Amino acid sequence: MTTPTDGNRRFPETRRGDHVELYQRLGGQEAALPDPYRWLEDAESPETRKWVEAQNEHAAAYLSAQPLWDIYRARLTELWNFPKSGVPWHRGASYFRTFNPGLLNQPRLEVAAGPHGPWRGLLDPNLLSEDGTVSLTAASVSRDGHWLAYSTQSGGSDWLTWQVRDVATGENGPDLIEWSKFSDATWHPDGSGFYYAAYDAPQPGEALTGTNRDQRLMFHRLGTAQADDQVVLSRSDQPDWGFRQIDITDDGRFLVVEVWLGTSRKNQLWVQELGSAQPFVELVGEFRAGYHLIGSEGDELLLLTDEDAPLNRVLRWNISTGERRDVLAQGAHQLDSVSLVKDGLLAVTLHDASHRLHLYSRSGERHGEIALPGLGTLQDLHTQPGDSEVFFGFDSFLAPLTPYRLQLPNTTPEVLGDTLSAQDTGASQDTGAYEVTQTFIQSSDGTRVPYFLIAARTLTRDGTNPTLLYGYGGFGVSVLPSFNPGMLAWLERGGVFAVANLRGGGEYGTAWHQGGMLDSKQNVFDDFIAVAEHLISTGVTSAAHLGIQGVSNGGLLVGAAMTQRPELFAAAVPQVGVMDMLRYHLFTVGWSWASDYGRSDDPQMFDVLRAYSPLHNLREGTRYPATLITTGDHDDRVVPAHSYKFAAELQRCQASEAPTLIRIQTRAGHGAGKPTALLIEEAADLFTFLEVELKGTDASQA
C-alpha cells in the first residue's frame, strides 16, 4: 500500500475499509457514501491504539526536530508562572475562592473569614492524581457555609464524581455520587442535601462513547448512599430532555428548573413549591424562547428572556396570577446577564463583543454605569439578593483575570490582592508594546462582522507578518477578549493574533446566532473567510503567512475553511473538532447539537451537512495547508474519532509537502480541567508548528 509523503517522512499507514453508508436525500433519493475509516470509531481496539501510537510518533518526530520547541516551552513556563486568583464568593460567614500560586497543575480551593483573607486550603485537587489530570469541576457551598459539595472529573472526561466536605474540618463525609454529567449541585435551604442531575451508568466499554440520554433530576440527602437518592424529575417519554439549571428562590419557597433540549437556547421553565407534594407547574411548557431565573420577590419571579426580544429583556412573572410585566425592556445592546443585589439589579451588556456593567433599581430605573478597566470581559459575577457586596473578575487580551469587589452603593471597584498585572508575568513581558484594535468588515452577503487584532504598535503592514486567526461561530457562544499566556509568547516573537466574531455566536443576540445555524451555517465560514481576506488585503499578512485555529465547533470551522479555500491559508490547527457532520449525533451528547447543525437522518438537512462536512469535502490531489490536528483520548464531548478520520483522509489526499499531523494527548479530554503541564506542552506544540510554517523553516533555528 502506498501513501503520500510528509516531506522526507512517510505518513503512518492507515487501512481503508470498504464500508458504505446509505442516506436519504430530499425527494426520496438515496446517497451511498463510503466510510473507509469506520474502524477508527472504536477507540479501544488494538488496531486503533496502534494507529494512535504511530501518529503520535510521527507528530513527535516533526516537533522534536524543531529547536524552537524548547524555546517556546521555556518561555511559556515563565509566562504561566504568576498568581491566578479566582473570583471570591460568600456563603454564611465564609468566603471561598480558587487560587493557583503559579504552576500548579490545578488551582486549589481556599476559604477565609473575609474577602481579603488570610486564606486557608480547603481542597487541593493536585493531591488526587500523580499527573494532575483530576480536576475540581464545580464547588457548591450550603447557604450556612457549613458544607461543600464538589465534583471532580478525571482525564478530561465530562463524567463527574460528587463528594461532600465539612468546611470547618476539611474532612469528607461518606457521600459519593457517580455518573453525573452537565450538572451543578443546588443545596436545599436547610442544608440537609442537594439537587443534581445524573444518567444511568454506561455499558461496559462505553463510558467515553455511549450516548447520554434520559437525564434525571435527583435529590441526595447527606450521609446516605447514592442508591437511596430521590428521583425528583424524570421523563422517560422525552429521553432528550434534561434539567440543566436548578434554582431555589432566595426565600426558599420555590424550586425552579430549566428543562433543556440539547444545546438549544430555548428552554421550558417548571416551578414547584419546595416541600410540596404537588407536581411541578409548567410555567413555560414549550421550547419557544429562553427563560432564566434572576431571582424572586414574593410570588413574582424575575426572568431574563429573549421572548419577543432578540437582545433579551427582564420581566416579572407572578406565579399566582400569571401577570407579566417588563422591568428592563430590550435595549440597543445584548443583555448578557442580570443579577439581584440589595435594593437593585446589576446588568451586564455586550457592546461589540466587550462588556459593560450597569446598576438599576429593582423597578428598572437606571442608576448609572460601573466603570470597568477597559475593553474586555466581565467574568463570574457573584452576588446575593440581600447583600450589597459584589464580586466579579475582569480580563482582556493583554491583562490576566483580576478579581474585584464592589460595596454598593459605592460604584468604584476595589482590586483584590494576590494578583499581578500582565507586565509582571514571567520575565517582565512588556504588554505596552502591543495594542488591541477592532475592525468591522463586510462578509460575502454584506453583513457587518467585527474582528479584534492584537499586534505590536509598530506593526508594518507589508504582508509578511505571521498571523493566527481564531474563530468559533456557534451555539450562541460569544467570543470575547480573554487573556492567554501563550499569545504573549507569540506576540513577542513577531506574531499577530486576530479574533473573529462570527455569526452563529451570541455577540449580537438571537438573530446573530440564528444567522449561523442549520441551513445558514455556511454564513459562519463565509464570515471567517472574509476576515482572512481583509487581513490579507490590508497588508497585515498574506496567504503564505496566515494560519487559522479553532476549538470544538471552532475545529469544524477550521476544517470547513481549509477544505473550501485551501489556497487562502498556510497553516491550520483544528482542535477537538467536529469533522464528521454525518455521524456526529451518534456519540455521547452529539445528538444535542442538532439544534445548531441539523442531522443527516433528516433528508432536509443531509445535503446541507454533506456540503460542508470537513471529512467529506477533502479531495485527493489537493494542496492543503500545513495542518496540526489535536484531540484527547478521553474526549467524550467530541469523540476523537472525528479527528482520527479527518487526519487519515487528509494524509491520503494531501498533495503538498506540508506537514500533516495529528497529536493525540493521553489522559486528556475536550479541554476542561486540563493540567498546567499539558496546557504548556500543547501551546509549545501549537506555536512551534505555526512559527515554523508561517515564518519558514529558518525560524526553527531562531
TrEMBL record:
GO biological process terms held by the UniProt record: proteolysis
Transmembrane feature ranges: none
Listed Pfam families: Peptidase_S9, Peptidase_S9_N
Gene Ontology terms, MF aspect: oligopeptidase activity; serine-type endopeptidase activity
EC number: 3.4.21.26
Keywords assigned by UniProt, alphabetized: Hydrolase, Protease, Serine protease
Catalytic activity from the UniProt record: Hydrolysis of Pro-|-Xaa >> Ala-|-Xaa in oligopeptides
Entry keyword Protease: yes
Protein family (similarity comment): Belongs to the peptidase S9A family.
Record-linked PANTHER family: PROLYL ENDOPEPTIDASE (PTHR42881:SF2)
Descriptive protein name: prolyl oligopeptidase
Organism field: Deinococcus detaillensis
Upper classification of the organism: Bacteria, Thermotogati, Deinococcota, Deinococci, Deinococcales
